[in-house]
Amino acid sequence: MLNRTTFSEKSFDSINVIFLTFLMIITIYPIVYVAFASISDAGALMGHKGILWRPLGFSLDAYTNVFRNPMILKGYGNTFFVVLVGLFFNIVLTAFGAYALSRKSLAYRKPLLLFIVFTMFFSGGLIPLYLTVKGVGLVDSLWALIIPQAINTFNLILMKTAFEAIPDALEESAKIDGANDFVILFRIILPLSMPVIAVMLLYYGVSHWNSWFNAMIFLQDRSLYPLQLVLREVLLQGEASSNLGASDGASAMLSVTLKYATIIVATVPILLVYPFLQKYFVKGALIGAIKG
Predict the structure, then answer these.
(1) Among 8, 208, 262, 281, which is least packed, fewest CB within 10 Å?
(2) pLDDT of residue 154 exceeding 70
């Protein structure tokens, strides 16, 4: 039996292809523009108007200037520490909280959920947060970037919903065999929830990687600055050079490409990690968003 495509189906497919192609171009073009601009000749880029389809010349001066800063490698080290240690605390504590809240036998479960959801909409504010962090002695420590961000309420609810979708019969069978809650969590619940764990790794990882405001508030020791804060300083120095353009034309031109090189340096590590988690992303987000 022939499966003939009707005119309306062909039209619908054609419109979809055109729309998705357009969407892909406007999504990818800003990344391509930044990549081309970062390696372009600064003078040629300053004089260019309109769409950038290729590098204007070739120069790595902006990257050289970024990596010449001795704080860059230190910033990478501090950021990797915050991301790796922070992810460990994030996943473990969020899993513990989500597992407890997903158990129907938990006492005062609904009041606890209401209390937790309340924190999503109302926070204490910046000053109480700073005083709390200072009160426990975390100011001027990388732990100030990890401990206060240990559990995100939205991610906690997402993981709780994913845990609730796992059949209760598995837990009951494990308990009959003598398993306690730790065994059920680590040997049954978590292995069956790898897609949502991948989503948590991406959410928390990107949040730690891009975070700079908390570091600016809680850190005074420059040797503890994460990468984003170091790059912010580099960018501000570039803008300061641009403001002195009348007396230092070379620095002013370099500052044009410097901001694009800064974006690439800060973005590439996350772009390299994303493809490995992307295949779990849609499935994990849906599992956590839809109660089974």
Answers:
(1) 8
(2) yes
